[in-house]
Specification:
Aminopeptidase, 2 domains, 7-stranded mixed sheet, 34% helix
Amino acid sequence: MELEKQDQVFRWGDITENDFGSCAELGGKTFSIDRNIMFEWFRKRLAHNPWQNESNSMGIGLWRDNTLMGYRAMSRQPWWMEGRQGGISFAAQTVMSTELRGMGLGNELIRRSSMCGDFTGSTSAGVVSQKIYSKLGFHAIGADNHFYRSRVSFAGTMSKRFGVVGKMLAPAMEKISGLSGKYVSDGLRFQQLERCDERFDELWLRARKGYRSCLVRSSAYLNWRIFDHPTCPLYISGIFEDDGRGPLRAFAVWHVQAFDKHVKMAALRDLFSEVDDDTARKLLLATLFETWRKMRISWASLEVAHPSVTKLFDNMGFEQVPSKGGRYHISANKALDDGVKAEWFRSGLDGDYFDLSGSQYV
């Protein structure tokens, strides 16, 4: 159907809080997720987002008569780019009714959503969708997703295969595989956290000059995302000087996903420090792996990407899991030079990460 004829049948418009119920209904059917969980995502990530009013819109909807047929939700985030603080609106959900697919309406939905802010972002779900973003003038970020993974423990998988005997053999397997490496602490201490204080702001102000483009990791943002309005259970751990009493050197955000009663995976959603502080980052990762091992977690998925982090993961022997189909795409009101695109800090805290609480998380 030509666009002129489509405009006579369909109506485009901004999503408001009054549309959350319809969005949750349509999105729930599309993703096979309970509509109440979907509704809570809209409430927490859009309605209770302190930065949302900096955006032109919460997202774009498509209606036929008075029925919502598609939408693209845009979640606002504070952002640091080239020495200045601003914001980016990330597409966290893109939904189109199955009966309307193949009509070009999804492409138009993406185009209209790119007007929700001076900078908007999304993640392509595959190579085919990358062509859509390229045609619409989006900038591709990075040459790969740069995700990594690593075995954490054999306890769960050995128990699943061999029962009690397998559980007893797991520690020996871990020693043979070299999973129990230690790093020098030098007065640094690992802590699990229940709140982010001013030491997070101090680290952010020290570290931000080393990054050309990244999420603002202030205590206000982290407390909102992790503790006050979480959309899936997240944990945060830090490395502090002076046996835990001094400044924050590095922190990590993670969650645990259970596949069955034996096999669990830890997903590293964020890893932040000054750009060259590998001492703190290595100790943080080593201690996290010890923590996860005690939790009988089988695998870790490391979902953070930056040249310094990628180099660290390589040096620590983690396995790269390449995906040229999963890429960031940014629409900008100005040109982005190659340096910004190559050094863009990507993490699972970014707004395009569609996280939901549910039975798959523990």
